[in-house]
Amino acid sequence: MPRVDVVVYNIGELVTFAGGPLGRVSLDRVYVLRDAGVAIRDGVFVAVGRSGDVRFRFDGFMVDAGGFMASPGLVDPHTHLVFAGSREDEFELKLSGVSYSEILARGGGIYRTVRATRASSLEELLSRALRVLSLMLDHGTTVVEVKSGYALDLEGEVRMLEVARRLGEVSPALVIPTLLAHVPPLEYKGRVSDYARWFAETLVPEVSRRGLAVYVDVFCDRGAFDAAESRLILEAGLKHGLRARMHADQLSYIGCSRLAGELELDSLDHLERMPGENARVLAERGVTATLLPTSIMAMMDPARPPVARLREAGATIAIGSDYNPNNMTPLQQTAMDIAPYILQLTPLEALAAATINAAKSLNIHDRVGAVKEGYRADLVVWDMENYKWIGYTWGYNKTLVVVAGGRIVKKKDLR
Ligand SMILES: [Zn+2]
Fold first, then answer.
1. Do 192 and 124 belong together in one domain?
2. The total number of structural domains that make up the chain
3. How far is the CA of 322 from the centre of ligand 1 (A)?
4. How far is the CA of 328 from the centre of ligand 1 (A)?
5. Cα(292) to centroid of ligand 1, in Å?
6. CA-to-CA dists, residue 167 to 14, 126, 144, 173, 268, angstroms
7. Which residues lie across from 216 on neighbouring strands?
8. What's the DSSP call for residue 230?
9. What is the pTM for the complete model shown?
10. What are the pLDDT digits (tens) for 333-381?
């Protein structure tokens, strides 16, 4: 009998997404298997099929999924996992009616986290991030994008990206590092375009030379960078071999999402204030719309991305946790479960958005985000009978088994 590392059998319903990323999510293109099993060797799926066939064809560590539902591991395509400190008193301020922009303008918000992060060592940042990452894994997140952006200077940004690299080395999660131009530092007050130029001409080439990031990202919005400054930074990243993504149209609309028509972008994130007519550009250019439902809650702002227009245009919709000190919930599982309430996604759309479409947002959908032979073996068995329970139940951890890169990181006793 062929030897493998792990066999998971007796899966009542396996949502595979073997057909790839989905613009319009319809059941006939999702590839749902009943009574399924998978075999895993060397970190990838080597067989996906009927439970009985897989179970008796291979020899390896056997995991009985108890007839529950399973899906690809969750891919979180937008996190600010590395930072120091917390901002719980700003939560109270926001509840009293002070806006996020106002807090930022007073030197709080991101700037406060910058002060704390600059003062922290690599070891301090790493141990905190590892603690959060293990919580993410326990809740089914097996792939995580990690941004820099809380140091703003060369030394500190490099340190944050080195933390991201170490996270990927010591954890079974796959980590995708991103160099983020978050806000201009206070020392550049009134000289934002000077900072954008320094970022594009000095920081981007240095990070690229050291191989520390896959992506370059910019917070394009009022109070951060305008469309021209964002373009300068993103173009520098593309020129130096990085891929590009962008925070766009979150707090205001200053034309940021229009850059999707002009630059090679993999993803536009947030989009709470994107005009509906821009949805077509994303669909035509293959740019994923990465929406952040828990972040919308944390902003305490009624603005919503134009989901119906994105769906109608056939744009790929992903979701992410946007874990950051303004939105301290690091769980893609929670983002997925509340997406039906906040974004009116169907349960199946929410699951696609948190797996295969999130992988597309990170341009790794040819090997991650689906349960398919040759794909990275990320799998979650859920305490749900079928995918329609996504959002239907929420607020507690529903993972029973979590496999990340072929390693079993969680296994509840199902008997
Ligand atoms: Zn963000």
1. yes
2. 2
3. 5
4. 12
5. 9
6. 29, 7, 10, 8, 25
7. 179, 244
8. H
9. 0.97
10. 999 999 999 999 999 999 999 999 999 999 999 999 999 999 999 999 9
